[in-house]
Specification:
By secondary structure, the protein is of the alpha+beta class. The protein folds into two domains: 88 residues; 123 residues, CRO Repressor (2-Layer Sandwich), CATH 3.30.240.20. The protein contains nine helices and eight strands. Strands 2-1-3-4 form a four-stranded antiparallel sheet. A four-stranded antiparallel sheet has the order 6-5-7-8. β5 and β6 form a beta hairpin. α1 runs antiparallel to α2. It is elongated, with a radius of gyration of 26 Å.
């Protein structure tokens, strides 16, 4: 009976402690968790899970461990809040993946982001074509913030008294300077056709194209590779 009572008391203390710690450090959505928040949640789960059913760990040991971790977390949060250099080194900083409509492939590699993953993140923001994006910022919490080109600002067809028209998913034709056979096959085109169309758009070298796609409007859109010379300007 005493063992069951000890478990119940530990559970109550763990619940109350975690609730107080959450209120102390502030509320965030899961998608807004920083690397430290994620690590902290893992340690807290291990701390609570390993002590509740361990008879050799007393209630006071659990309270002491949670109090110490709460104090350490609070101190770390305050240091991060008032020391921007330390915060940037520990949490990193936002990074531009798309600049003026041009894809920075070096930034994609630094952040271990494949084109498929970039497109997925854009779709999660209701953007199905990379050609619509002027800027894309990869935030420190893993989220993607975008700024559309003025021509692609959201406008309802009903506002213009236009009839609804069918839509189709765009096809990826080039990724990081490499033609995509599956995308070309989806629109019944081949690589010679692609090279000819790119030359008409001003791309003599296919390797200078970071990304190209066949849009929902049936138009070829290409985004040039962002080179370091642009960053210096």
């Amino acid at each position: 009976m005493a063992d069951y009572l000890s478990i119940l008391i530990k559970l109550f203390i763990a619940f109350a402690g975690l609730w107080c710690l959450t209120r102390l450090l502030g509320k965030r959505e899961i998608s807004q968790l920083s690397p430290f928040d994620f690590i902290s949640s893992l340690i807290l789960s291990e701390l609570v899970g390993n002590t509740i059913y361990d008879g050799q760990v007393s209630i006071w040991m659990l309270i002491t461990a949670m109090a110490f971790w709460a104090g350490l977390s609070y101190l770390f949060e305050k240091i991060m809040e008032f020391s921007k250099p330390i915060r940037r080194k520990l949490e990193g900083k936002p990074e531009l993946l798309i600049i003026h409509g041009e894809i920075d492939t070096d930034a994609l590699r630094r952040n271990s982001i494949a084109f498929d993953e970039l497109r997925m993140m854009l779709r999660q923001r209701d953007v199905f074509s990379i050609s619509e994006v002027a800027y894309a910022v990869y935030e420190t919490n893993g989220a993607l913030s975008i700024l559309k080109k003025p021509a692609y600002e959201t406008v309802q067809r009903s506002d213009l008294d236009l009839d609804p028209s069918p839509v189709h998913l765009p096809s990826s034709l080039i990724e990081d300077g490499v033609p995509q056979p599956e995308g070309l096959a989806a629109i019944n085109r081949d690589e010679p056709w692609l090279r000819q169309e790119l030359e008409a758009l001003g791309y003599s070298d296919i390797r200078s194209v970071a990304f190209a796609e066949w849009t929902t409007e049936g138009v070829l859109r290409a985004a040039p590779r962002f080179v370091k010379e642009h960053k210096k300007k």
